[in-house]
Known about the structure:
26% of the residues lie in helices and 21% in strands. By secondary structure, the protein is an alpha/beta fold. Strands 1-2-3-4-6-5-7-11-9-10-8 form an eleven-stranded mixed β-sheet, with helices on both faces.
Amino acid sequence: MKAAIAACLAVLVLVLAGCAGGQRGGISITECMDPADARSADVRRNLAKLRGAPVCYRRQEVREGDFHWVFHILEHTKTPDGPFWVLPHDNENTAFDAGVEALLAYGGGLLAVDAGGARNFRGQDPNRNFSTTAVEARLCRAKRRPAPRYTRAILAHYEGRKTPYLALHNNSNGHARNGGNGNLSMQLTGPYLTARHGARVGSAALRDEDNLVVVAGPRPLRADAVLNRRVAALNRAGLNVLHKEVTATNFDCSLSDYLARHRLGEYYNIEAEHGARAAQTEMIDRLLAVLGIAPLRPKQRANPFLE
């Protein structure tokens, strides 16, 4: 399904392959290093968890126009082909911490965009920066100019993987239109948004309006039989799901919209309220179970009488 992007990513894949660092076309990536050598507050905050684990750290840099992007990448050296997570926002610490737990439990890796601890970098939202042409970028209100190098550098990490595109985010309590402080919740619906609430299984936190899985597609959910079945499975697993139908009029240059617009494959974004680390970890476990991705070691089963 992702073969359509293979040609345009071939050069980048060569740069990213193996443990050798390299630079080409404004993109560079370091060799595998000890996470303790990372110049990242997020990585340093998790060093106790990472110490002694088979994890290497890489620093990737992308120079494009006026922007000098830095990505912090953690990879499981024994099972590098596991699920790979993108974390676009540098102010969402709970998502990063949950991502480290997922990395250690399932293998794979994560990529976090460095914005100095802020949501935006030099006025640009990193999750509104996915576009490859000027025509495409003009569709998005929050996009200055196309960013093909940035877009392809991130997507190259998925080349050859059998797992879906995955992302982690945090949001604020409630939605601004309903008296809350956030910009996304299960209470936010509209012509292109479909909310499907999860079954009452798992922890009570799973039923919070701010804890949800975001999916997107170029068609209404009811018209996409495959995705509709997947959403139903996620609901049965206790997960709230919000689906966005991506059109030319509401395309916003986010990762989810870009993947849907170009029909590049399955995408799941786990959104949890700031500070709700346990809930976000539980959501990761339940999502990956539905996707058929098993942990590296069997997790201790929860008491069924508490579910």
